[in-house]
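Attaching the record inline, Q. Sequence:
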Amino acid sequence: MTGPLIRRTSALALLLALGATALAGCGSDEPDESDSTASPTPTVTTPAPEPTTSEPPAPTADVPALVIRPAAIGDAQVGMTRAEWEATGLFADGAAICAGELIHWKDDPDGTALRVLTDEDATITQLWVTAPGPVTDHGDLQVGSTYAELAAAFPDITAPVDDGYDQASVYPPGEEDGLPYFGFLLGAPADEVTGDTPIAAIAVTGGTPADFQYDC
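Structure, as predicted:
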């Protein structure tokens, strides 16, 4: 015969078992955070900086539209004394590039395009240009024109001769006559001059060859 204590114990055990089963069957509808896949971290792309370009420096002076004639550029003439060139207002005392220069063009104090040489008394012996702008009265030649254009304007021009710094010089006929004349500096050595070789400088003198490579 089973006693009341045993029956109560059995009933209690049954209730506990039923409760455990019920709890096991209850689950959360929310997903387990541990099972979720983490979102990837977005990648930020920094655009590469655009390359910068530097502009070449502009000349310090605007080159006047001068006419180049034998022994003259504009109103400046080879042979002018100090009193004569001072009256034109074109020049001022002081060197443009070399210490030995006595005067310079007021329009180009740094000598980037216009140059002038004198003797020790400041009498002008040579005028020359080294930038486009001024043109010759014969042939409309300027710095940057080609040797082919030069030869067409002056068919009897002398053959190119080396004139230092990988350049060559040529002259129209007449320099041996003691007459004012042009001198043209070409941008290549004499043996490399072609029709496309550019004119690098144009000089005018008073009957002697242009001094393109003078000592400072």
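The first strand starts at residue 67 and ends at 69. Residues 1-31, 33-37, 48-60 have pLDDT under 50 and may be disordered.

More tomorrow.
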